[in-house]
Amino acid sequence: MKPPTRVQFWGTRGSIPRPGHNTLRYGGNTSCVQVTSPNGAVVILDCGSGAHDLGQHLMANATGSLRGSILISHTHWDHIQGFPFFAPLFARGGHWDIYGPSGLGQSLRETLAGQMQYSYFPVTLDELGASIRFHDLAEGSFAIDDIRISTRFLNHPALTLGYRLETEDACVVYACDHEPYFRTPGQSTPLHEDDRLHSEFLAGADLVIHDAQFTDAEYASKKGWGHSPVEYVAEIGLMAGVTRMAFTHHDPSRTDADIDKIVETVRAGLKQDEPGMEVFAAADGQVVELHSSSRHGGRGDSSSSKSAAAPAIKDSVVLMGVSDAGLAVVLAEAASSEGVRTVHAADGGSTIQSAKASPPSLILIEDDLPDMDGLSVCRSLRMDGDHRLTDVPIVIVGKQERAREGMSAGVTGWLTTPFSPQYAKAQIQAWLMRSACRWLRAPLPHDEDVRLAALRELSILDTPPEERFDRITRVAAALADVPIALVTLVDEHRQWFKSCLGLGVSETSRELAFCAHVTVSHKPMIVPDTHLDDRFADNPLVTGGPRIRFYAGFPVFHHNGGCLGTLCLIDTRPRQFPQTAIQRFADLASVVQQELNVGAS
Questions:
Q1: Do 38 and 136 share a domain, yes or no?
Q2: How many CA atoms lie less than 13 Å away from 179 in the CB half-sphere?
Q3: Fewest CB atoms within 10 Å of the CB: 205, 280, 284, 426?
Q4: pTM, to two decimals
């Protein structure tokens, strides 16, 4: 019989460590939780000051090289300050995988290394003895041994991930730090759509470990701080059908007696409704074992097959339809990052025109534009019929959220004023990460003008098919056993096919063209499986017809050295070729090159 899923709390305090005689029972260490699966996989949730004691415990009980995984919710200091003091990282022969949300312009590794610079710590990240791999995450799912893990962005001033861990017999959700998307203490209001989605992330869990730093009375003056009142946590847990709810991230001002009183008050309220949910305050050292008999309920959104690996968001464009100059400056700064570009439009009409001319990655619209309100702009974009705008997130920035009207207009989300620049940055990053395509458009070659001039001089574009080129694509397709072989020429705005075997079109947009990457690199490009390549996984030629799964492109040059296009091979299944075959295809590309340059001066 397999052992149960085991959860042990090593740090449950929020904001700052709080040792002392008034915090003995619940503890003073900041966030750190250990989950051990039935197969023995060790997963650590956050690496606050509690990670020191956990590390010492693991080292003392080790029977060989230690290995495990650390899931960082976000990089605020109280969630990573124990990382440099986690002893297993210093042990040679150990193996650790560290996961966390990707930052705008900064990787998880760079962030953790920052607090280990010489100015702050005597040992750098590169000097640690264990083998360490870093994984930047967005929303999606992945697996660690016998644990399936789903991620979801939480509502916090820094980009923060919640984790849902499911084994064969149990489900644990860790949601720390998080605050309600919409809550007015003391008032009964309809549940906000984002809060409903949060409850779905918790749905049916055997144990939820949830930020509960405030009470409703305290939260009234602390909105925007990124933490939840216990009343909200209890309500959302009941709605989600949670079996056990553990309050964590205890406020540093709380004594043991304060926490006892809060839990008793929540329990008294729950008893009146005769719920089936147990609530308790998590304490340092506490162990919870989850047996198969406790498994029940739904599985939230963990069935998602979308990979949690963070997509590249460089080359993303944020379109701001904002008339207020001060607001435009704040939003531009919040969106700023290496590789993220902002475009500004000062009214609704210009915003619509700009979005249609060049669809951005994200659209931010001020609700009070001079010529129309934000919902009207959104409605116009959604009803235009342009498929390129169908999935672009549109966020309205205004003083008051109009949820029902916004839903009917196609609004993705709201950014309600006033907000801090940090909060806006986190929300913009989350929207970009959710919508980011795993599709990298090729940049222009450094010799673009000369290259295009040489292509024009050949006078070959839009000429009829010729046997001298068709013969080459037939041989190439037969040698590779692929359904599609092309001789492509990359024009200013299109990719045109001089020879086309297996496709019913004569050209595609240059924006979509795989071959455009070859004109930049001047080297053969082999993509064994497009689904595993962030440059092409979401390219419309992969997700739609002709459903490219394998690509091999071999450069074809003008006699002046510019790359004109390729001989390329395409298949609808993943492929691998030995180097000897790759060389034969390169030889055929040389034949194409000779034919193209016949008669060129």
A1: yes
A2: 23
A3: 280
A4: 0.71
